[in-house]
C-alpha cells in the first residue's frame, strides 16, 4: 500500500534534518507563483469554455427544434380552438422534452396563428394569461371567420383535457408583423431574434424561427430570459464565479442568482459588482485579481455577449496556501541543505507544470489520460484525481452532446428527405433504415394496417442479410399479424398489435425473459436461423390528429463493441419523433393519392358527361387524351427539330398534360345541344318551318274562302276557280322555296335573298291574342305587339326574336385576351335573318356559341386554384383551336406562342374528330382520308408540321387506329408523300 502524507509535514521533517537554501526559496516563490497562476488561468479557460459551449448549445437546440418543426410539410389551416390540429402532438412532445422552452408556434401567410405554451406551474405565466390555477398547457389560435379575426385561448391540464376556453374578437396580434416572422420568411435559413417582449406573457425573451418547408409560414420557438437566467445560474464557474449575457447595448439578457433586485434588459453598466466592473473594463487594477472571458455570439442573426468572470484566488487558492507553507518551511531551512531543497522544489514544480499542461489539453477539448505515478503528496494526489475526474466528466458530456446533436441533425435530415420523397415505398424504407441508424439496431420491420391486420412492408436484418420490401423488389413472405381474434376482440398478445391498439411504444430489454407478450413466433424464427432476437423497441405510426396506420419495430440495439444492449430512453424518444414524422408523411401521401384519384374520377366523369350530352360528340373527350398521350410519349423520345429539347421529366408534368387533355372540351357544358345539333336554319329546340307552313296553310284557306264567297256573291265560277288555282300554285311554290332555303344545302345568292324578302311581305291576319300563355320571361318580349286581330307579315324578324345576354361577358373575355368578336345578342331567331344565312345553318350568334366552348374552358380552368405544378392545364386545354399562323381562336396565337403540348393537342383533337365513327351526322373518314386531310392542315399551317411528321413517322396514327377505329376504316397509308 502506497503511503501518502501532507506536504506541510514533509517540509517540517526536512527542516529538522536540513535548512533550505536561498535557491529553493527563489524557485518556490518565482516558479511556483507563476505556474500556479498559469494553471489557474488554464482551469478558468476550460471552465469558461464549457459554460459558453453549454449556453451556445442551448440556443442551437432551440434553433434545431425550430428547424425540425419547420420541416413538417403541412398545408393545414388554423380554425377554431386548434385542438384537433395534426401538428399539436409534436408541439407537446417538443415542450415536454425541452424544459427550457416556453412555447412553440407557427404563423401563416394568411395571418392565422397557432401557439402551445407550457406553464410548468409558474404563477406568473398562469396569471398573465388569466388561466385557471391547475393549467399546465395553453393552446392559442388566431384565425379569420366570416371576415372577422378571432383569438381562442384553451387551457388544458396535465392530461391535456380542456379546463376552460376563452374567445376574443379582433386581437391586436398579427404574426406577420412580428420580427421573428419577417426575418424568417425572407430566407430559408434559421433565425435567432434579438430580445423583445412577448405579446401574451409581457415578459422579454428570444425566438428561434424558421420558414416552413412548404413556405406557407414560419415556425417559432420561444425561450424567455427568465428560463435563460435559470440555465445560466446552473452553470457552475467557481465559488465566487459569475456568468452574464448581455447585448451590444449593454442590456442584461441573463444574470446569475443573487441579483434579485435587477431586471432583464436593465443597464449592465449600473450594476455594482466587481466581476461586472472587470467584464466592462471599468478598472484596470481590479482586473489583475480576476479572470474574465467575453464571447461575442453572432449566430443566426442575433448579437449577444456571453461573459464569464471569477476571482483569481478561486482557482489558485490551494496553490497560494501550498506556496506559503513551502515558503515558511524554506525560511527555516534556508541555510541547510540547499541542494536537497532545490531538487525537491524542482520536482514539485514539475508536478504543477504537468497539471498546467493537463489544463491546456482540457482547454482544447483534448481528454486523453496520461500515465503517471501517483504522488505521495495528498494535495497533489487529490488535485490530480480531481483533474482526472473533471477530464472524464467533460469528455463524457462533450461526447453525449455531440452524439445528441448528430442524431438531432440526422432526424431533421430524414424528415426533410421524407417530405420531399413521393414514392411511398421509398418513404417507408427511409423510415426503417433511419430508425436502425439512429438506434444502431441490427434489424427491424415496418408494418401497415391492411384489412384488419398488420402487413409486413419492409424487413431488414444485417446479421442474417435479410432484405425484403421497399426498393428490394422482394415481397415479404410472412403472414400478417391479426389485429383481432376470431371473436372480434382486440389482439394484445403480439407486441406489435398491442402497440397499435394501445397507441403506445413498448421497449423490451430481452424478449426471452418477457411474459407480457407472445414471442413464440420470434423464437421459432431464431431457432430456424441460428439467431437471438433480444431487445425490442416497437413504436406506433400515428399521424398528427389521426388514427394509427401501422407500427415500426427495431431489434437488437448494439454498442460500439457490437454487443446487444437495451434501447435507451433517449434513443426511444428519437425513434418516436421519427415515427411521428413518418406517419404524418405516409398519411399525407395516402390522402394526396386519394385526392388525386378523386380528382381524376371527377374529371373523367365531367368528360364522360360532355360526351354523353350530345350524340354528335361521342367518346371525343375520352379518346383525345389517349391520342395526345401516345403522341407526347413519342415527342419525348424525339431528338429532331423543335422536339429535341421537349421532355416531360416528372410524373407531375405528365399528370398536368393528361388532365389538360381530359378537360379540353369542358366548356361545352354551356353549349346547348340544339345549337350543336342544328340541322336546319329555323331549328331551335324544334324546327320552326312548321310555323311557316301553318301560315301558308292559313293563306290557302283564305284563298279558298274567297273563292266560295265569290260564288255566293254571284261571281263567275270558272274565273274564280282559275284565280284560286293560281293562288294555290304560287303558295305551294313559295313554301317549297322557303323550305329549300331552310335546309341550307346551297349558297344563298342575291336573287334568292330578293325572292325570300318578297315572299316575306305577304300578310296574314292573326285573330288571337299573342300575349296569352307566356312565361314570366317571355312577357317583356311581346309587350309592344298589337292587339288581335292584327295583320302580320308571312316572314318577319320580330323583337321577341332577339335574345339579350343576361350579362355582358366582354370585360371578362377581354381580360383573358380573347380576340374572337362577340355578337351583340345571345341569339337572333329572326325568321328572315336565319333563312338568309349564306352557307350552312348557323347564325353568327350560334357560331360564336359553339366557338365559345373553348373560351369557357379557359375561363373555368383559369379560375380554379391549381397548384404550381398544374398551372399549365388551362393552356393545354384551351389552345387546341389555335393555328401556327394566328388564324385560330380564341386568342389568335401563333407558333411562337404555342408550346409543344399545345401543338400536340391541336392535332389530336382534329384527327379524333375526323376518324370518329360514333357521329350520326357524318360518315367516319378512313385512315388514309384523315391523314390526307391533316396534310392539308399542315400545308395551311393550321397544325405544326414537325408534330404531324412525328405522328406519321412514329406510327402513332396506326397504333391509334388499331385501338379505336373500325376495321373497315383502317386502310394503307403511304406516309412518304406527306413527310417534310
From TrEMBL:
It is a multi-pass membrane protein. Gene3D superfamilies: 3.30.450.40, 6.10.340.10, Hypothetical protein af1432, PAS domain. GO terms for molecular function: phosphoric diester hydrolase activity. Keywords: Cell membrane, Membrane, Transmembrane, Transmembrane helix. PROSITE patterns: HD_GYP. It holds the Pfam family HD_5. It is found in: Cell membrane. Residues 759-967 form the HD-GYP domain. Its main location: membrane. InterPro entries: dCache_1, GAF, GAF-like_dom_sf, HD/PDEase_dom, HD_GYP_dom, Sensor-like_sf. The chain crosses the membrane at residues 326-344. GO terms for cellular component: plasma membrane. This is HD-GYP domain-containing protein. It comes from Terasakiella brassicae.
